[in-house]
Structure formats: C-alpha cells, structure tokens
Design goal:
- By secondary structure, the chain is an alpha/beta fold.
- Helices cover 14% and strands 27% of the residues.
- The strands form 2 sheets. Strands 4-5-6-7 form a 4-stranded parallel β-sheet, with no helix packed on it.
C-alpha cells in the first residue's frame, strides 16, 4: 500500500484466558506498528481476573470514532472531541480522579454507561485522596443519558448528588 497516506483504525480484542501469562503487554504491541510513522498508535491491555478474560484496545490517534467502549481504570487518557457515547467497565473500583479524567477526556459526551459492582475505596469521594480538601463537582455539560448498569450504590449516589 505505497499510496496509503493515512490510516484510521479501532481494533478491540476480547479473549477468554484463565490467567495473565499469555497476554501481550502494551510494550509488545507497539513495535507491531513501527512502520506507521505518521500515525500515533495507542494501545491499552486489561485482564479481568473475576471474569477470566483479557481486553485489548488498539487505535489510531487522534481518535475519529463517535463512541469509546469498555474504558477501565487503565484508560491512557487523551482528548476525544468526536466521542459522544462512552461506556465504563472494570472489576476494580472507579474513584473520583478517574471520573474527572473521563469528563476532561470526553468534553462532548452525551451518553455515559457505568458498569462496576465494586464500591469506592475512598468512601469520602468528596474529599481528595491527596490533601483531604473538598473536591469540585465533576461536570458533564452535554450529558443527556446516564445508564448505571450493574453499578454499586456508590456510583448512583455520586452521579445523583455530586455530579452536574
């Protein structure tokens, strides 16, 4: 493909594995794309122990899709202005800083789905883990649909009482 100047892609791989031994790391994945000099490639690998599966997400950046699914605590960040639909999933609890990162990374999110049955570790999520000061309210100015799917009561409380 000598005439290919730009490549935009979004690869998502789910694999059922009983352990983490054979899961590639981000360091293993990145060299695969070494010839894509004009495209930044982002990869994120997760292993979910309880469900015994791995999830690998590889995409070109800037991200051009209007959705971003299955974001976990391993989310690498970035700015995603085209994304309007976001889903969050993890077996580890989401904390205040994670939701703040999501709000900053997806400034135009309209639909947000949260799937997480684990309670906050920091029950006082109105207080910062670092300096015990009151945390600001997280704002999702374009949010029109919030789905709490198999979500712990902590997330219900957070979104109903401490989010705009």
């Amino acid at each position: 493909m000598p005439r290919l100047n730009n490549l935009t892609f979004n690869i998502r791989l789910f694999n059922r594995l009983p352990d983490q031994i054979n899961i590639p790391s981000n360091e293993n994945i990145q060299p695969t794309f070494k010839d894509f000099k004009s495209t930044q490639i982002i990869s994120c690998v997760d292993y979910f122990q309880e469900k015994q599966y791995s999830f690998c997400h590889i995409y070109s950046y800037p991200y051009r899709m209007n959705y971003y699914d299955n974001i976990s605590n391993n989310f690498p960040g970035g700015l995603f202005k085209n994304v309007h639909t976001v889903s969050l999933f993890d077996e580890r609890p989401f904390e205040y800083e994670f939701f703040l990162q999501i709000a900053q990374s997806f400034p135009f999110v309209k639909e947000l789905t949260v799937t997480n049955e684990k309670p906050h570790k920091n029950k006082l999520y109105r207080k910062s883990k670092n300096d015990n000061q009151d945390l600001s309210i997280i704002r999702y100015p374009h949010l029109t649909r919030l789905t709490l799917l198999q979500a712990h009561d902590d997330y219900v409380e957070q979104f109903l009482l401490h989010t705009e």
